[in-house]
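Our preliminary data section would be incomplete without showing what the modeling component actually yields. Below, a chain of 561 amino acids is followed by its predicted structure, encoded as tokens that our downstream tools consume directly.
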Amino acid sequence: MSRQYTFFATVPKGIESLLADEIRQLGASEVSETLAGVSFAGPLETAYRACLWSRLASRILLPLATFACASPEELYAGVKGIDWAEHLDPEGTLAVDASIARSQITHSHYAALKVKDAVVDLFRDRYGVRPSVSPNRPDIRINLYLNRDTATVSLDLSGESLHRRGYRDEGVLAPLKENLAAAILLRSRWPEIAGEGGALLDPMCGSGTLVLEGAMMAGDIAPGLLRPYFGFLGWRGHDAGLWQSLLDEAQVRRAAGLDSIPLMTGYDCDHKAVRAAWVNAEKAGLHDRLHFERRSVAALEPLPGKRAVVGLVVVNPPYGERLGEVEDLKGLYETFGDRLKHHFLGWKAAVFTGNAELGKCLGLRAHRMHTLYNGALLCKLLHIEVAPESFVEKRGPAPVRLSEGATSFANRLRKNLKTLGKWARKEGVSCYRLYDSDIPEYAVAVDLYEDSVHVQEYQAPKSIDESKAAHRLQEAMSVLPEVLDVPENRIFLKVRQRQKGREQYRKLATEGQFHEVSEGNCRFLVNFSDYLDTGLFRRWLPANAFSTSLPTPAPPPCMPP
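Predicted structure:
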């Protein structure tokens, strides 16, 4: 009987149940879901199949040891207690990844160095030689997960993230990861549609990820078949014969499945994106099975001569991730919805968006909805039956009557949003000050924190009538949701008064609600309600641009991306 192992598959948050079903179909037993992962059991063949065939997993790990770890010394001793000679040649190569949460050891790079030191010292003590560190494609990759002072040390059998299929040579701005694209297609029931001969069309295909992943599903093509490297290839426990038999089986299945690929089409208005899609299709060996062309959403329709075919329109349109972009995107969503209504009756549509409000501009009612994450961004996958009963009558917004002063305030916000927003997008800044008493009568500071707004009213001097100040604040607060396209529950107001000493750091509330924002390659937790300051301060930059800097006193915790 083959030796049984316990494995763990990591996965983007929100698709754990899909991965659990996939792992079961690959023959695993004792499958159990947890946050951002699935544990399972089986022989080595099961792990190999997961590495080769999983469309959803990020990594396949083989846990070696779990132990209490509240100090660097305990980490070193626990790692050194593993018999690494079973896994690595004395003069082989290794790399270490570390992830830490809620533990006394807080620095992931330092923890990775301690793991490396323990492995290297074991070999030096035992054999008089030591393995070398190789960040790129080492013989083994060690994974450390440290949570609540408990360490789990694993071998990363995948070696690098499984979303890297091996077909992507070129990309365009913010492409979907391949395993997220696969999750979108599975949630949209593409395998069933393809099995019935239905077509797939992506009208904003970018570098073609959704089309390529859909073709590999329909053609029974293993997503790992093109990958030249896996983490187990240099592992001493690797069974080369078993792995080759699985590759041979996958090649046979691919050859048999190519003729099952239905009509697969990708459009994009950017000629560079279309060129990248063709390059990726060529590398995947699917260029003669797919079609890409440059076409705008306004000209969206099925391929000429193929109008009798129905199927799935799947799209990952722009989200308007930064304030100021949303107004420009409403027309795109409306046009897309109109083209669906006029040219795709009987089709199904799946729209993946990070802005559910923009989804309402489609003029089509979703009958199902799933929550998924594109990186840290929460997104909605809207499932639509393109039929008259799903059409939504468009209604114009109710007119809003503003005073002359409030209109000036709104116009200044729009102007600042246009100029500063352009700078922020260029610099990769997501948190900055948009307005700071630019119009003296509206004495507020408005700070943007990605999809949230932090407003501070400056205390009016005694010479200003309190009722007038209160009315102007009310006007300002009524303008913000519309101009910034932010719901009222994401706008937070405080009054900034003269403070003495450290009074500015005293608590104002006890809600304890933290919000995650990104700056560079770090993510920060900020608090909009409990303190006068949020935890990130602003500083004035040249050309009327704001950026963030860490505060004094201590900054909020920085979490690994």
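The radius of gyration is 27 Å. The chain has 13 helices and 24 strands. Preliminary results of this kind motivate Aim 1 of the renewal.
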